[in-house]
């Protein structure tokens, strides 16, 4: 059971790292879209006057998402390290138990109980820390959803403002679409991270 749990933790943590990497790339794309939108709005002048402040909002959302993902990555790295440590402690416990079983009639067999108890305690401590970081990660993933939802709203407003930009309509609408698509991707990736975390909890 413990080996299965460790394996599930390794798989889940690897999955989360991959999804977070994708979210980071999308956030960078949003930042680039904001820069492109700002340049287009500047060229359009009065025709895109309402679009200009939107570019600042888009850029702020990108920065907020990148910052949140960086913080989440730190927790994901801690989860990986704790998973490795817990796996090693599980292996140590298994070997101590095997040696203790084989030496049950030996004169000093009782001396194995202390190191075995210590190894089991360290394994339990690792798992408690892991569970705490999982809870913190769940909360942080919820935080990432806020800028993603805001991006959907901004994309809708961007389409409205773009419709008044004359010959710049198509270019600004493309920016709105890219922000909307990015928000959807972030939503999907965060959902996958949550699914990976629930996989850990189901084995817990």
TrEMBL record:
SUPFAM superfamilies: Methyl-accepting chemotaxis protein (MCP) signaling domain. This is Methyl-accepting chemotaxis protein. It comes from Methylomonas methanica (strain DSM 25384 / MC09). The lineage of its organism: Bacteria, Pseudomonadati, Pseudomonadota, Gammaproteobacteria, Methylococcales.
């Amino acid at each position: 059971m413990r080996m299965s749990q460790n394996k599930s933790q390794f798989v889940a943590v690897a999955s989360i790292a991959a999804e977070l990497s994708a979210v980071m790339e999308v956030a960078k794309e949003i930042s680039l879209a904001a820069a492109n939108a700002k340049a287009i709005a500047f060229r359009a002048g009065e025709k895109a006057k309402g679009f200009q402040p939107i570019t600042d909002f888009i850029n702020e959302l990108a920065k907020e998402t990148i910052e949140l993902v960086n913080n989440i990555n730190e927790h994901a790295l801690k989860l990986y390290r704790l998973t490795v440590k817990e796996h090693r402690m599980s292996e140590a416990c298994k070997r101590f138990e095997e040696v203790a079983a084989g030496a049950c009639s030996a004169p000093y067999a009782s001396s194995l109980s202390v190191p075995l108890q210590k190894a089991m305690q360290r394994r339990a401590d690792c798992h408690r820390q892991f569970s705490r970081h999982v809870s913190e990660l769940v909360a942080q993933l919820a935080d990432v959803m806020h800028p993603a939802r805001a991006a959907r709203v901004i994309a809708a407003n961007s389409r409205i403002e773009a419709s008044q930009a004359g010959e710049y309509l198509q270019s600004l609408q493309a920016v709105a679409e890219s922000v909307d698509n990015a928000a959807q991707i972030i939503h999907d990736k965060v959902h996958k991270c949550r699914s990976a975390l629930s996989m850990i909890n189901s084995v817990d």
